[in-house]
Amino acid sequence: MSLFDLPPRAADPADPAVVAVVAELRRLDPDGSRMAKVFRSTFDQLYDGQHTGRYSVEQLFKTEKTHFGTLIEINLQREFKIADGCVLDFTIAGSEVDCKYSHTGAWMLPIESFEQIVLVTQADDRKSVWSAGVVRATQENRRTSENRDKKTGLNALGRSQITWVFKDAQMQPNALLQLPPSAVSEIMAGRSGQVRVNELFRRATNRRLSRNIIATVAQQDDYMKRVRYNGGSRSALRPEGYLILGGDYSVQRNIAAALGAVVPKPGELVSVRVAPAAPDDGVSIDGEWWRLAAQDEQIDLPAPALPR
After folding, report:
1. What CA–CA distance (Å, rounded) separates 150 from 109?
2. Do 120 and 162 form a contact (C-beta atoms < 8 A)?
3. Whole domain around residue 209: which residue ranges?
4. Which pLDDT tens digits describe the chain residue by residue (308 residues)?
5. How many other C-beta atoms lie within 10 A of the C-beta of residue 30?
6. Are residues 205 and 288 in the same domain?
7. Residues 225, 261: one domain?
8. Rounded distance, CA 37 to CA 152, Å?
9. Cα first-last separation, the chain
10. Contact between residue 264 and residue 208 where contact means Cβ atoms under 8 Å apart
11. Is position 9 within any domain?
12. CA quadruple 230, 233, 238, 240: dihedral sign
């Protein structure tokens, strides 16, 4: 399934260097999964949720927000093993390429990028989307105004000339940004890491929860211990009817799919509440039949034990 919201604009054939850069980026990452991983990990790197409890750009210091672009550049270069440029950031397909990031899409272009190829990137953690495109910063594509550092940006024509390698592609969601703020406040108010993680699984049901989200809520070194049986959330919430399905186990992914729940990917967890069901209306788990519970449904039996 394509990650494009719209068909990508073809690079201008009159600029073979731009065509070659776009082709190389698409060769390196045909489905966008590697770039998506870089954007997700860069947000999480800056938040450092395990030690700070932060989970949004708004919680960052101004200098940290500014540093995001540098980290994207570094992390893209590491992921794809891109060579340094002599003057600009990268060398891709034999051309110098400047790498620019903007949360808003207002990329600032320094003098050294004028007439050069620019890789423009953008991401929105609340919407779980990111974009990466290629454009040449010609005089026709640049604004005439400059700031005190002689930097400028793309004009309307320049923005229309961007060849999007990926536009508004999906990345792993940040569940804490998708929940109502009141629910997040309730989660983070817990007196201990275990209490907070338990509340996360109660509040964030049928959502993909990454290990980083667990770490942010637990704020402990052994944060995954807070999930397991033998004292973790799987044990604590089982009497309330909750199953915590892990994407690292194919049998649990299959259970999620059979229940009609969100299916966790490897490294993720999905919390669901289940109720007893008739054989023709449920899924067999641990020798009994179960279905997704309705919201606020009273459940008198504990959830089944999960196979691995």
Report:
1. 9
2. yes
3. 175-292
4. 333 344 455 666 789 999 999 999 999 999 999 999 999 999 999 999 999 999 999 999 999 999 999 999 999 999 999 999 999 999 999 999 999 999 999 999 999 999 999 999 999 999 999 999 999 999 999 999 888 878 999 999 999 999 999 999 999 999 999 999 999 999 999 999 999 999 999 999 999 999 999 999 999 999 999 999 988 999 999 999 999 999 999 999 999 999 999 999 999 999 999 999 998 889 999 999 999 999 889 988 999 999 98
5. 9
6. yes
7. yes
8. 30
9. 29
10. yes
11. no
12. positive
Which H/E stretch holds residue 21?
Answer: helix 16-28
Asked if residues 207 and 270 have their Cβ atoms less than 8 Å apart, the reply is yes
* CA 216, 218, 223, 229 torsion-angle sign: negative
Round to whole Å and give the CA distance between 103 and 92.
Answer: 24
Q: What are phi and psi of 226, to 5 degrees?
A: -70, -10
Is 200 in the same domain as 255? yes
**Interior angle at CA 292, CA 287 and CA 293, nearest 5:** 110
Residues 152 and 229 placed together within one structural domain of the fold: no
301-to-203, 276, 277, 290 alpha-carbon distances in Å: 20, 8, 12, 11
* Residue 152 and residue 168 in contact, taking contact as beta carbons nearer than 8 Å: no
Q: Does residue 304 lie in a domain region?
A: no
